[in-house]
């Protein structure tokens, strides 16, 4: 039976969403095309009807995952973002968490198309964090961008370090607490830093 154009598009989107989750959970090298298609409910042979290569899917799934984080970020101020991002809940939720924290190290060894999606995603997240900022070409805007870039790099790095520790390690929690408090102290010295948000970036 011939699949309609609309159904083919829906199938492709489902494969991309499935890949985005699996790649975040297992890494790019930890997921083969056959396993990925099986998880999405399709046969291995159908993969190349949608994608030219695994790298093509990796790039598209990275854009998908980063867009999810960016969409959630637009509903948060910086303090709420930091509390949600540097929470144990986010740290433990690799498959649905931030793509940059889950796959940034892997992306550095991937084709340019994959790295380009990460670069675009970083720019989009910076724009979301700076959405109430000054005019783009002003000195204030450049300073705000630098602060947002520092915040993002600090937060992503903290998740990466925490995840590198055993799940039951006291250090895993200490990294999150210390980095969260340091960032929040800069953002707002009066902020209460001891409570994690229930939000999930």
From TrEMBL:
Q: Would you say which domain of life the source belongs to?
A: Bacteria
Gene Ontology MF terms: DNA binding
Q: Which Pfam families match?
A: TetR_N
> Where DNA binds (residue ranges)?
32-51
Entry-linked InterPro entries = Homeodomain-like_sf (IPR009057), HTH_TetR (IPR001647), Tet_transcr_reg_TetR-rel_C_sf (IPR036271)
Kindly indicate whether the keyword Transcription belongs to this entry: yes
For the HTH tetR-type domain, which residue ranges apply? 9-69
Which UniProt keywords are given for this protein, alphabetically ordered? DNA-binding, Transcription, Transcription regulation
**Does the UniProt entry include the keyword Transcription?**
yes
Q: Write the protein's name.
A: Transcriptional regulator, TetR family
Q: Which organism is it from?
A: Chitinimonas taiwanensis DSM 18899
């Amino acid at each position: 039976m011939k699949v309609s154009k609309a159904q083919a598009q829906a199938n492709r989107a489902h494969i991309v969403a499935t890949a985005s989750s699996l790649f975040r959970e297992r890494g790019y090298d930890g997921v083969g095309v056959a396993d990925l298609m099986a998880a999405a409910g399709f046969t291995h042979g159908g993969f190349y009807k949608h994608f030219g290569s695994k790298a093509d899917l990796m790039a598209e799934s990275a854009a998908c995952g980063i867009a999810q984080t960016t969409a959630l970020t637009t509903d948060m101020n910086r303090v709420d973002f930091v509390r949600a991002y540097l929470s144990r809940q986010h740290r433990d939720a690799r498959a649905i968490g931030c793509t940059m924290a889950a796959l940034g190290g892997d992306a550095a060894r991937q084709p340019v198309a994959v790295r380009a999606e990460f670069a675009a995603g970083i720019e989009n997240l910076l724009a979301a964090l700076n959405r109430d900022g000054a005019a783009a070409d002003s000195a204030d805007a450049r300073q705000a961008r630098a602060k947002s870039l520092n915040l993002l790099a600090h937060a992503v790095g903290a998740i990466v370090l925490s995840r590198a520790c055993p799940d039951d390690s006291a250090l895993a929690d200490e990294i999150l607490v210390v980095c969260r408090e340091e960032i929040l102290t800069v953002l707002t010295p009066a902020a209460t830093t001891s409570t994690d948000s229930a939000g999930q970036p």
